[in-house]
Amino acid sequence: MKLYFLRHSFRLLAAVPTYARLPALPCLLLASTSPLAVAATTPASAQSVDTKHIAAHHSTAMPRRQGAAVPKASPEQITVTRSHAQRYLATPGTVNTISGKELRSLHLESPKDIAAFTPGVTATNAVSGSAPIFSIRGVGLDDYVGTNMGGIGIYLDGVFAPFPVFYTGQMLDIESVATEKGPQGFDMGRSTTGGSINIQSVKPSDKFGGYAEWGYSSYNTNRGRFAINTPITSRISNRLAFNYVKGDGWQKDISTGARYGSQDLLAIRNLTKFTIDDTSSLLLNLHYTRDKGTSTSPQDIGPVSSGDTGMNPSANAVSVGNAVPQRNENGGGLSVNYTKAFDFGDFSSTTAIDFYRRDDTDNYDGSAVHIADYRWNDTAIAQSHDMHLRMNPTKFFHLTVGVFESYDKIDGDYTSDRMQSSSALALDNHFSQQNLSTGVYVNTVTNITKKLDFIASGRFSYDERGFNGGSRYSEIGANSPRLLAPYNARVGDALTGVNERHDYHRFTGRVGLRYQIVPGTYAYGTISNGYKAGSYFAAPVLAAGALDYVKPENLIAYEVGIKSSLLHNRLEVEGSLFDYEYHNRQTLFFAPITTTENSLTLGTIPRARTRGGELSTTLHNLVPNLDIRGSFAYLDAQVKSPVNYINGLSLDPAVAHNSPLPFSPRFSWSGVARYNIDIDSYRVTLQASYTWKDNMWAALGDPNAKTSKISSLGLRMEVGPKTGKWTAAVYVDNLQNNKGTTYSFTGSDNNRAQYIQTPRWVGCELHYNF
Fold this sequence. Notes:
Elements (H helix, E strand, L loop, with lengths): L1 H19 L3 H5 L22 H5 L23 H10 L6 E5 H7 L14 E5 L6 E5 L2 E2 L11 E5 L2 E2 L13 E8 L13 E7 L7 E9 L3 E11 L4 E12 L3 E3 L5 E2 L2 E15 L2 E12 L7 E3 L15 E2 L10 E13 L3 E18 L11 E21 L2 E23 L5 E23 L4 E24 L22 E21 L2 E12 L20 E14 L4 E22 L5 E23 L5 E14 L3 E4 L2 E7 L11 E13 L2 E12 L16 E12 L4 E8 L7 E6 L5 E5 L4 E9 L1
Parallel strand pairs: 5-8, 12-17
Antiparallel strand pairs: 1-7, 2-3, 3-4, 5-6, 7-8, 9-10, 9-38, 10-11, 11-14, 12-13, 14-15, 15-18, 16-37, 18-19, 19-20, 20-21, 21-22, 22-23, 23-24, 24-25, 25-26, 26-27, 27-28, 28-29, 29-32, 30-31, 32-33, 33-34, 34-35, 35-38, 36-37
Organism: Komagataeibacter diospyri
Main location: membrane
Keywords: Cell outer membrane, Ion transport, Iron, Iron transport, Membrane, Receptor, Signal, TonB box, Transmembrane, Transmembrane beta strand, Transport
């Protein structure tokens, strides 16, 4: 396999001179910025941008230079994340971050949960939970199957996660989560069109310490977590983190009384840091997660007599039948990050390999009659390597050069029950999908004047996509001699099939200007273009064209914005306006085959456009003991090229000009307020949080795919000594017990199937630091 990678790496390098003769400059001028994360400040006395540190923000563990002082801080202090934030204020692009402390206080347990408090981001589960769909500013990939990467790159400690199953596990012992907006891939990782979400765990330190936590909440849910930091020698330190959740289901079957949506989650991670010398270090990351909970079920809005949940079911009512939804997932892997500091710059190399095994049963149709239940049975492997050198050749010129390579493969057997009566049959897709990606990237920052910087970046990407699989009827009952509609096929007959490979290469780039208005306040403007590789649709489908290859998508992004951190970091403001031109947007379509049969498929929209703006503000202790954080986003995402046919399937109704794009809520906003009350040697913290997202579409061409408006109010009270030795808290999420529809679609019986947001959740927790 290594020879395979080397062969294609050399092919990539050999191709560069050929494409250097193409009109690269116009391509380079189509570019933007997507810096990682978050606003905060450089020192007020700084007269120029510390671009070297800004460029180095993706490094997992930066070594110190010989003789340099090493700042020490407890990983439990929010100052850790704020120090990161201070390096990113000058980044010319929108970045939103959430600290580990905020994650715990808001009960954000998985990557998809951060969407509620990140402007312009949506995330939802289209099935039982293994395939979360992410979208940033309407850019994503609404594929519920889980074999495809969307337009968003998810990075866990600097390691790219190509399939959704790799980031469905719990986030444990997290330092920060940073969301970058716009095309990415110019200073690390794989090329993406919409942005990236970067999750960083707390790293080992040379001090013994840690914490233990226990919580109890609604539906008999117990949670236990701990992290312990242990210095082994003067040059070796270790951090072990653990999280376990066990709880009953909140859904109830209307016929059997059985519970669904239960939790049984385990996650563990061990980080070991080896300090080689004063200029280099190595970080070893070992991790494992497993999920044996019970899948949630949608509601099928139809008559109870036909096995559905009724026309007006209660929020927790489901109709499942005898095929019990369940989840049996586990996976893990390791990564090694090596960093080396030279006099002229810093070098970083991250190599990783991950595995994941999934065998889930999903009541996808929401009905007790098994006409569209799914079994997701697959195994995924992902290997990646990213290395880059960040340096300052001159006082006014800062350069990052790097290379990224990844290989990922998923082998699956997806089965959809189509009927259960005297003739029982299932539609099965057995497939193997392989992806190879390589890329060479360059990022430069030139100080034109003391306050004005010019940013120019470029990337050359080479990708291969291969798919071998197809659908066939896999089982049948008593009436096996008869032919089966709509294709008059018998069991075992191949209905659809694809065995092909596509390879392609693209050059993307960005340019921009960044201007320091006053110390701590920057304005910027960028142009960028992003590209996402092609994909395949791996669901078991009746229509032959539904498995056709979906060609790559392209995005040109224009963005202007301003960032400011004033009053010694007490006031932080970040605002931006953007305009995206989308070409060949990959998306999910709903297409009827006959009057009683329909199919989902992936296809492209030739042209689409997204415009909008975002604003986020943080007020820290402007009023003594009060912290306020708020965000607002506006999004106008529309189809600009009507679509009547996809992969030979006729859309009814067709997708019209100016139709809204999927997962693009027009308005969304959130707010968090915390107030501290000191009583002698104790501190009481009161917190209120609120999120609201407009309704949006989940698929094109499907009249039932529009969600409702989603809102949630949370309250929390925490008490503990001012020393922070321990805290005790009580909380409630979704206080109003809202019952919004988070995802909906037309089921195989042509009824509306819908997932409902989690109900009111009340709990308490004890946290002890040692």
